[in-house]
Amino acid sequence: MTSPWKSSEITRREFFEQCAETGAQTFVFGGIFLTTANLRLPQEATKSGAAGKEPAQAIYGFVVDTTTCIGCGSCVRACKAENEVPDGFNRTWVEQYTFFPNGEVIVNSPLGGEDGFPDNLPERNLPRELEQLPARGFFVPKLCNHCTDTPCIQVCPVGASFVTKEGVVLVDKDHCVGCGYCVQACPFGSRFLNPDTGTADKCTWCYHRITKGLMPACVQACPAKARIFGNVSDPHSEISRILATNRVQVLKSYLGTRPRTRYIGLDSEVI
Question: Which CATH number fits domain 60-91+144-264: 3.40.50.970, 3.30.70.20, 1.10.3720.10, 3.50.50.60?
Fold first, then answer.
């Protein structure tokens, strides 16, 4: 191994200058100058600097940006195709919120937004002074919130609903008896009884994909990048950056379920 030092006979000042050049740490022990320049950490040491320390457990999260969603329905179609969701049901859907000048709010979601939305807004008989005022609207994609405090898991009589080590709420179809308690308990309307399997069904964040390093089907299909998924325990991940630089909200925060699905740009009428 080639020594990083320029000479074996150097002055005190030259010693410290060469330490600075090599990035070595210097210690004084018993009047002897010691340096870490030639020290090497064990191979199993992690980037965190702690030898033998295991990487942090991945905890997944999801962010929906309502300011960029265009209501195209690509996410809904991708989800149904990927997960073989039966007709008439959705694991994820999109709602269109329209706010009229008279204070009226209309929520529309034809086929869960699978085929997109009409360009024209619903007609309303407004007073003449309000007719010329513009209505405003936006789209809100919805899916399972994968709550930290889960009402659905609490009511399951056979333990078929459970949460994985990554924070994903799933249903064990081999144990589900199709009682529907979890469907009734979910305050977000995210669950349904699958007529083909007779068991509870819901968004899984495409668990079969994310455990292989792939993105959920809806995230991959979104042309507007309105859906963001990732490991929130990794401070360098895209989702961690987004959470750190944006004001995010959750649906029905007053319920205290602490959803792992968060939103950017939610209006108070949606919350």
Answer: 3.30.70.20
